[in-house]
Each structure stands twice: as C-alpha cells, then as structure tokens.
Amino acid sequence: MYHLRSMKKEGKISKLFSNENGQLGLKVSDSSEKKVISFVPDQKYGTPKTLNLAEIQALVNSKV
Questions:
Q1: Which of 8, 20, 42, 44 sits most deeply, having the most CB atoms within 10 A of its CB?
Q2: Cα separation, 12 vs 44, whole angstroms
C-alpha cells in the first residue's frame, strides 16, 4: 500500500481503490479501466493473490 500511495503522489497512477475486504485496485489514468491488483480466491481454501511490485510497475508502465 505504501508503494501505491507513493506512486499516486508521484502522478504515476490516477486513482487508488480499496474495499471492505482489503482488495486493492488502481487506475493508471482517469480514462483507463480499473485494474484489480489483489484477488480473493473463488474457492473456500484457495490462496489469495496480490501482484508484487514488479508486476504493478509493469502494469503501470503498459498504460493499458
């Protein structure tokens, strides 16, 4: 979360989202679609997944 807040402060991302379950998302620009970076498993005993810093940087740099 610290890195996401610093990226927002630097202007690399436009918006940062979190919900009541702790799921994180971001928008690279105001016109881009929301990208979810932490995933809650569909299965009861599934493992949650959160993108690491390198994956987030690649997502932001791709501007998709």
A1: 8
A2: 35
What's the sign of the alpha-carbon dihedral 33, 6, 63, 39?
Answer: negative
Distance between CA atoms of residues 41 and 44, nearest Å: 7
Determine the 3-state secondary structure of 15 from DSSP. strand
Residues 8/16, Cβ–Cβ less than 8 Å = yes
Q: Report CA dihedral (8, 42, 20, 35) to the nearest 10 degrees.
A: 20
- Rounded to two decimals, the pTM is 0.70
- Which residues are 27's β-sheet partners? 15
Strands of the chain (E only): list them. 15-18, 24-27, 35-36, 38-39, 49-50
Q: How many helices (H) and strands (E) does the chain have?
A: 2, 5
